[in-house]
Structures are given as C-alpha cells and as structure tokens.
Design brief:
Two copies of one chain form a homodimer. Chain A is of the alpha+beta class. In chain A, the strands form two sheets. In chain A, strands 1, 2, 3, 4, 5, 6, 7, 8 and 9 form a nine-stranded mixed sheet that branches. A six-stranded mixed sheet of chain A has the order 13-12-11-14-10-15. In chain A, strand 4, helix 2 and strand 5 form a beta-alpha-beta unit. Chain A starts with a strand and ends with a helix. At the A-B interface, helix 8, helix 9, strand 13 and helix 11 of A face helix 8, helix 9, strand 13 and helix 11 of B.
Chain lengths: 407, 407
C-alpha cells in the first residue's frame, strides 16, 4: 500500500469544486461538490440517532434503493435537521438543480449538511451555489483540498488522505475527506466523511466493506458522546481502475479493505485529534479481551469518561479514573488482573500491575502524557481480542466553544 | 409530612460525632461516626461498578448477611479503592476498633470512605479517630451537622435533611446526610448517603423501600456520567418511634416510603446542584412516555449530554442538543411529536411544538435559563409515564477541578 497526496480527487475520474454560497458564514467557502465522470456504485453508513436530518433520509433512499450515484453536494453552516417536510423538500430541490447542471439523474445525487439544527436552509443560495460549482469541477489535488476546506465548521485543519493498492494487476486508488468535532455555532456536531475510489467492485461488496470497517474506525471515535443527527459516511466507487470486479470475499476484497481501513482510520484519528478544544489525541487500547465486543465496550467507556479526559488535559497519570471507567462500562472483567500502560512519542510506562500501582515515577508519566498524541493500553488478561478507541482531552476551550455562543 | 431541622441525629436514639484525623486534609474534620443507642435493621444500595472499593465489599457483607447494624464510620480524603487485601483488612481493623470502644459486635459496624483511589489509608490515624469520636457522640442537631461536614470532599455545602410522619399513631422521624460531586484531589468521585430513622420496620421492608426509592432519586443524578467505585447509601432503622412494626406493603409502608422519598429526593438534588464546578441545578422531566423505563432512558440521556450541559452554562435555549440527546438515547419516540418547555423561578416557555421551533423569544428563554435551578420538560405524547433526572451545567470550573490538580 502506498500513501499518496490528495483526497477525494485522487482516484481516477473524480472531480471536485467548492464555492462561497453565504449560507451562514461570510468570507469563506461553505459548499462542496464531488462528481464522478461515470456512474458509481455507492455505499453509505448513517447516524443511528432517532432524530435524523433531512439529508440523511434522502441519502438513505439513494444508497439503499438506487443502483448508482454520481455526485455529492454538501453545505456547512446549517444542518437541515428538525426541519420537517420543508427541509426534505430542499434536499430534492438541491438534487434536482445538481442533476440539471450536470446532466445526470436527480436520484443519483447525494446531499449532506452540517451546522445548526432547527433552522431551514436558504434554498436559493444552495441552488445558486450548485450552479456556481458545476463549471469549476476539476480533477486536481487542489480541487479536492478546496472541497475539504468548504465542509469544515470549526475544524481547525482540513482532513483528507489517499492511498494506492494493486488489485488484479491494476493500480486502485482510494481517497477521502471528512469533517467533524469543531463547532462555532450551537448544534454543529456532525461527522461527515466522503471516500472515493476507482476500484471496480460490486455495490453489495462495497457496502459490506464500509459497514464492516466503520465499526473499527468512525464508530470508535468520541469527542463528547453526543451522536449527531447528521452523521454520514459515503463511499463511491466508479470502476475506472480497470481491476477485475470484486464481487466476493477473497484476496482482492481484503486488499481493498486494508486500503479502506487505512483511509478511515486516518480520517477518524484526524477527527478525534481535532475535537472541540482538544490539545491531544487520546487513544485507548484494550488488549487481552475475551471478545471483541468486550474490548469495544471497555475502550469506549474510557475514551468517553469526562474525568479521564480532564486528567489527560492535566497530563495527570490518573489511572484510578481509567479503571473506574472500565468498571462501570457494563463489561465484566477482574480488576485485580488489569495491567495498565501509558505510551506516547516520549516513551512507555507501566502504571498498574494486577490492579495496583507499580510505584511508577509521576514525573516520567507526566512527561509521556504531555505529548499531543497519548495512548492508554489496558491488558485484561482474559483472551486475545483487542479494540482501539479514539477521543481527545476535555479542556476549557470545549466549554468556551459550546457555552459562549452569544459572546 | 413535616419538614424539620437536622439530619442523621434527628430520629430518636441516633448520635453522631466528627473529628480531624488528618487522613489527607489538614485543619478540617475528615471522619464521622453515627451510632444508634439500640441495634438497627440496615438496608444498603451500592455502586454497580465492577471495581468496588473495600468498604463497599465490607458493608455488603454486613447488610446482606447480618441481622443488625449499630454504627457507621466514614472518612474523607482516601477512598480505600483498588487497595487489594490490605485495604479490606483496614476495613476490619476500623470495625474492630469501633466495636471495642462502643461495646458492640464488630460485624454491626458499617464503614465508608471517599477520596483518592489507589492509595492505602493510614490505619493508625483512622483507629485514633475512632477512639477520639466515641466519647464525643451526641444526639444534638449540631452533632449531626458536624458529621455532615466531615464527610465533604470539595462539596461546597453540607447536605442534610429531616422529616416527620405519623405511622400507627406514632411520630416517625427520618433524617439523612450525604456528600458527593465535589472534588479537590483526583478520583474523588463518590456519592455517599446515610439515612437514619426511628421507624419500626422489618429489615426486608426497609431494604425494599430503599432499593425501590434509589431508582427514582440517587440513580437519577448525574454530574459527569462517571459511576464511582465507592457509591453507597445506608439506611438504619432503630424502631424507637414505637410504631407498629411495618412488615408488609400497605398504608404504613406507603407513608414511610413517601417520607423516605422526600429525604432522598432532597439529598439527590443537593448533590446535583453542588456538582463539580456547577452554577445551576439542571432538572430534566420527560412526560407523556409509554413506559417508565423509556422516560428514565430519555431523561438520563439529556442530563448527561456534555453539549446540553455546556448550553445550560451559557443560558442558551439550545433545544436541538436536547432533541439530539433524546434521539441517541436508545429509546424510541417520534421526534415530530415532541413538545419542549424550559421552566425556572423566572417563568415557563414553550420552545418546540411537534418537533419544530415555536418561534419563541430568545431573550425570554435566556432569562428563564439564567436562574440557578432550571428545568427542561419534554412531552413525547405516547402515554402517561414520567421520569425526572437531575444534573448540573458543565463549566470551566469542572475542567479546573479535574485537570489542574498539580497546580
């Protein structure tokens, strides 16, 4: 696998564009378009929140009920959530305008929104934005980067990545971009991911790959435990790499999955590390678990614990909070068998052995925890299953971003 | 029901004392003792955390396997959690010394600790504290108050309450104290509650009353979603009120339960309102639910949402976050039927009707949310079940308390 430059325009036949439609922000781009020169099979995963935004409902219909998709239109600023029939109607108007300017079917257009909940989108500005983007579509790396910037809310960095693998003697490229975890206005709590590939793969296997992989990647990220109404990951495959079509599990599927896993893991860590107000990416690995499910439950409980997150911000080797969070997770284990380590660029240290302190050096632990990427590893000595979750520290800026919106 | 002054010494035959044992703090009391002149039947509810502190294990044995209890000894500063066999041995030494100085059986002594996890308690200071408290035991209101102060960690106010009811022609008193939600040192995340009554009630009915009632009171409180290793509520009944013994459900049991519910609700709200760094008590009521379980799930999801808690701190009528938190709770409901209100001393306002904004006045909403006790009421229009959860806002001071322990 080879890591290359770029994002959603890295794979053959994909173009992108961005524009400043003034939906809510001034002086920055706030709409992005992705277009494939040929129809794609599409896979998607969506928020499990009972309250689903209008674009989520629109996309579910396209992904689940249509054979192909060819374009994605995304806006930042307003989430088009809790907007009733009117909001859903705007999804259709957006798709209709996109279909018209690109000469493709309306039901092959996917839409996505992120921003304030409960506010209607200004549909005229959206359709004007669509018209402005169509002639600017380009397959350059820069065009992909512009799209990645346009979908940001208060993300502090754009998030994109691309890789190449060899499948059936052909070079297959996968590239993606995402946004998430930053907020300027209230309710901007959406994770959006867009991944494009020129792999030739059946719709069924594409969805299987994505559904399987999000469990280990995006679903293992938590910034604040609040699952958005808009969360969406879309994966488009246009087949232009010319590899023999992947229609079943096997070596080719595994190669594709490995590349997809790299893209999604990379984007997931970018979201966690750029969490609201975060100063550090916090990774939690559970090893020696009896089952994968147990490892997932334990790692997620630790990564979402407010007390643990505040301790990470304080560079404090506060292992009691980690053991406590594992204890209330709902998973069973023997606290008196747990070994716990902290690890970062600055080194690795064993903090507890069989549930009690090793008498470690607080100074050394603080040094390790002062890096901007820190990992806690808990070995529960029950088996061989593992899981990794990603989050961030809990800081003053998280409160500032989420409480002070009127200031 | 009559609300009276006092706490754990309000009921007949109960005495209390406190002392400064210098377990971890200097210049303040840090041990408390409760003693009943006659043996009590005892009920208890304990943390569900897999990681249980030594005193929790000790008390579970006394409450579940012994017929009576007569004293409680509690220290603040060190939690005696994750301390292995050594820590459990210290519980026994504490109980043995208490038994010796009070002339009661060792297995009728309950112990409780709150403070830092993973550190051994200085047992000599504990046993010296026990010896110092025994001669100071007193049944005055002041003695109860001193005990309530000694168990505080960074609670900013002592928490006690007492009521009287009439049962079988006799005046029955219930009084209680608790601590929780304040932190000075890391890992101090323990809720402890001690309730005493002179009611004559069987051990079985006492436990039934407590187990039933904690579901609606302490278990509906969340400051940060972190369930402690030490959480304990103990209820002692010594029978000195002389009412006919309550041995089954019926009018007398209901009267007792009503009084107990008042005590526990009052103490629960005191904990929530004094949450770490809190500026406001945040109450969430779900009404119109199909089942109690559904209402509980929804109310707890809202009260623990970091985004919602930060919005309450900002006095921001951020209803999208509340609907979002209901949506990811795991409970099913129709978002497009929800009505939502905010209420406080300053008034009541309808924010959304059938899932969309009522076009309410932001100014009026902010005025209502600027009080130090605010309530969100969501009507999901599916039935008649209700639930109320209590929490607090999420503030800069929460981060300060939990991250800056080295400063």
């Amino acid at each position: 696998m080879k890591i290359i430059e770029g994002g959603v325009t890295a794979a053959k036949g994909f173009q992108a564009a961005a524009t400043a439609a003034e939906i809510k922000y001034k002086g920055r781009t706030d709409m992005a378009m992705i277009y494939s020169e040929v129809p794609c099979v599409a896979a998607g995963t969506f928020t499990t929140n009972v309250v689903k935004a209008a674009p989520v409902k629109w996309d579910q219909n396209v992904v689940y009920n249509r054979s192909h998709a060819q374009a994605v239109v995304c806006n930042s600023g307003i989430a088009n959530a809790c907007t009733g029939a009117e909001g859903y109607g705007y999804c259709k108007e957006t798709a209709d305008m996109t279909a018209e300017v690109l000469g493709i079917p309306s039901d092959s257009v996917l839409v996505a929104s992120t921003g304030v909940i409960g506010m209607q989108i200004p549909i005229d500005r959206i359709t004007n934005g669509v018209k402005a983007m169509a002639p600017k579509l380009s397959d350059t790396i820069e065009a992909g980067t512009e799209a990645a910037k346009a979908i940001m809310t208060t993300d502090t960095v754009k998030k994109e990545v691309a890789v190449q693998v060899e499948i059936g003697g052909k070079t297959v490229t996968i590239g993606g971009m995402c946004k998430g975890s930053g907020m300027i206005h209230p309710n901007m709590c959406t994770m959006l991911g867009f991944v494009t590939t020129d792999a030739c793969i059946s719709k069924e296997m594409l969805q299987a790959a994505l559904s399987e992989n999000v469990k280990d990647t995006y679903n293992m990220v938590s910034v604040d435990g609040d699952t958005s109404t808009n969360d969406t990951v879309l994966l488009l495959a246009n087949g232009l790499a010319g590899n023999p079509e992947i229609t079943e599990k096997g070596a080719d599927f595994d190669t594709f999955l490995e590349a997809l896993n790299y893209i999604n893991t990379c984007l997931s860590k970018k979201i966690a590390g750029d969490g609201e107000g975060a100063t550090a990416l916090f990774e939690v690995k559970i090893i020696g678990a009896e089952t994968k499910e147990q490892a997932v439950t334990l790692s997620k409980s630790v990564v979402t614990s407010s007390l643990t997150k505040a301790a990470i911000y304080g560079h404090d080797a506060n292992w009691g909070r980690i053991l406590c969070a594992m204890g209330y997770s709902g998973a069973q284990f023997d606290p008196e068998k747990v070994d716990l380590y902290f690890e970062s660029r600055a080194g690795k240290i064993k903090i507890i052995e069989n549930g009690v302190s090793t008498g470690y050096s607080e100074e050394e632990a603080t040094k390790i925890l002062s890096e901007d990427e820190v990992t806690a590893i808990a070995d529960i000595k029950m088996g061989t299953a593992t899981a990794t979750a990603w989050g961030c520290d809990l800081t003053y800026d998280y409160i500032k971003i989420n409480a002070d919106y009127r200031s």
